[in-house]
Amino acid sequence: MSIVSALGHGQGGGGTSPAVAAPRRRARGGAYLLLAPGIAYLGLFFVIPVVALLVTSLYVPVPGGEVGQFAPAFEWRNYTAALATYWPQLVRSFAYAFVATVAALAIGYPMAYVIAVRARGRPFLQGLLLVLVIAPFFTSFILRTIAWKQILADESFVVSAIRAVGLLPPDGRLTATGFAVVAGLTYNFLPFMTLPIYANLERLDPRMLEAGADLYADGPTTFRRVTLPLSLPGVVSGTLLTFIPASGDFVNSVLLGNTSTTMIGQVVDSRFFKVSDYPTAAALSVVLMVAILVLVIAYVRRAGTEELL
Amino acid sequence: MSGGQGAGALAAAVGVADRTDRTAAPAPLGDRGRPRRRSPGRWRLGDAVVPVFAALAFLYLLVPIAYTVAFSFNDAGRTNLVWRGFTLENWANPCGAPAVCEAFVNSLQVGAIATVASTVLGTLVALALVRYRFRGRTLANLLIFLPMSTPEVVLGAALLAQFLSLRINPGFGTVVVSHIMFCISFVVVTVKARVASLDPRLEEAAADLYASSWQAFWRVTFPLLVPGILAAALLAFSLSFDDFIITNFNSGSFTTFPKFVYVSATRGIPAQANVIGSAMFGLALALVVAVQVVSAARRRRRT
After folding, report:
1. What is the pTM of this model?
2. Residue A266 pLDDT more than 60?
């Protein structure tokens, strides 16, 4: 299963060593006993809910009923109706998530490289930099997003400075723009990009780089031909970890965007809570889940079978 | 939210899973032992560009945190939007805005239960997946992977659809149930990495010394797994504590800390929320630094 192995890539040899590490003399019954509680839990609270979501997505309103009352049905047109209305938000979500993922890769790769390769052999510096990458995990991400909202606010010090320099027209604004939403997404998921790449580069055997140098490759060539290809599994995990949550996020678009930056997660949320339109919300959720799974499988296949660059 | 390596990396980074026995590569060799064959001076500029760029990236990462901490000292009154002067009042009286404290305590309770339950369930699954070959193993792996590759909004909506159809009122219980669900996969991935890194010869040695397989597990394997399990628990707690989207779907009128902050964002967030955010940050930082110092000391002793 390629997607599964993509996740397991290079975790202390998680992908390869079990064949060696696992003594196979135990009875199989033990395995099922260990698995049962966790798998049963996921069955009850992941598989069945997803099925419930599928079923709900086909419901029809009760004729003459109140708002939020639906009857079981097989109304697949819920999907076409939902897509016809909300395709711009769906496309925008993937576009924003894509740009944010590329930006996070451009920012996160050098960070990971500096921590893992440049700071190698200096445990204190390495530890300190790692702490800085993990640090955001511990300040509520909503608080940090609101901090961005205030930093980018029209009357803020930062924005006045940017205007003064002339990078922004005098009446230009950063808050409540698509740019702010993408910047927020990039910011919030940056550690998810940086950490897997770091974990991968950290295991990079320095002798590989020496070999590159021995073969008269200069720095950039060694990087392009040795370091980068070897770090691709980390890049794949990092991009998935950034893209998936970013495409479903609505906190950034609510707090940093405006009415024309609405993302699909926001639509699902408001269909559910503001208008109790459960079938549409469910149908959009199913579409989002399937679209992401298809993208992820296609991406991992591609990354797994041929080099990305 | 989704995680494989992120989870493993976070665990490793927290340092609870000590890095020494995972990295077989001679990492400590470092820069010094490497012959530098490239011509001097040629790539000096390139050498500087990457660290400078990374420094800017770190700045980007830390600016909102600095902002949050700074505004925890703001003499804000009701809305913490503009700087009105320095005060220690918010720190001296973190429960000055009672709703903040209540939401914080709620988050701690949910986090504690979700952490314990998901760590137990996830550790058992991880042991089964690494140490046994059995029918349905691929399916089990897939079931662990799927929640991590599903956007939170879908997980939240799916659970709510189920709770609604069962006529269960959302509240504390449904929040705990949903948090355990999304934490399990991350625990499995983190602990799995640790189990896979264990040397099977250790258990064989125990067997050679006439330990039963039960004794070998509890006296040899389990103590070696503890760091990985602790890292997984820490990860589960931080995921649960910071979760907003799934909580928002399944909480009804029950409020957690992130939900409180989000809901009050329109009216203005009391500075006490910044105090709690900053305190959690400081605490976590202290913990990570302490673990780093201890493991550095241990590394020194070993070499």
Report:
1. 0.83
2. yes
For chain B, say whether A56 makes contact (Cβ under 8 Å): yes
Nearest to B30 among A49, A121, A293 (CB): A121
**Nearest Cβ partner for A30 among B4, B132, B292:** B132
Tokens of B191: 């602990």
A268 part of a folded domain = yes
Under an 8 A CB cutoff, do A21 and B198 touch? yes
Number of domains in chain A: 1
Q: Is residue A46 part of a domain?
A: no
| Start-end of H helices in chain A | 2-8, 18-21, 28-42, 48-56, 77-113, 123-134, 141-151, 157-165, 178-202, 206-214, 219-222, 228-248, 251-256, 264-273, 278-305
**CATH code, domain carrying A266:** 1.10.3720.10
Tell me which of B247 and A200 has the higher pLDDT.
B247
Contacts B13 to A, Cβ<8 Å: 130-131, 133-134, 195, 198
What pLDDT does residue B176 have?
A: 97
Q: What is the 3-state secondary structure (H, E, C) of B111-168?
A: HHHHHHHHHHHHHHHHHHHHHCCCCCHHHHHHHHHHHHCCCHHHHHHHHHHHHHHCCC
Number of Cβ pairs closer than 8 Å across A and B? 404
The answer to whether residue A72 is domain-embedded is no
- Residues of B within 8 A of A11 (CB-CB) are 4-5, 8, 189, 192-193, 196
Sorted by where each starts, the structural domains of chain B and their CATH numbers stand as 4-18+45-302 (1.10.3720.10)
The interface pTM score, or ipTM, of the predicted complex is 0.83
What is the span of the domain harbouring residue A255? 86-305
Verify whether the Cβ–Cβ distance B8 to A135 is below 8 Å: no
B238-252 per-position pLDDT tens digit: 899 989 999 999 998
Q: Does the residue A195 lie in any domain?
A: yes
Q: Which of A111, A139, A240 sits opposite B277 (nearest CB)?
A: A139
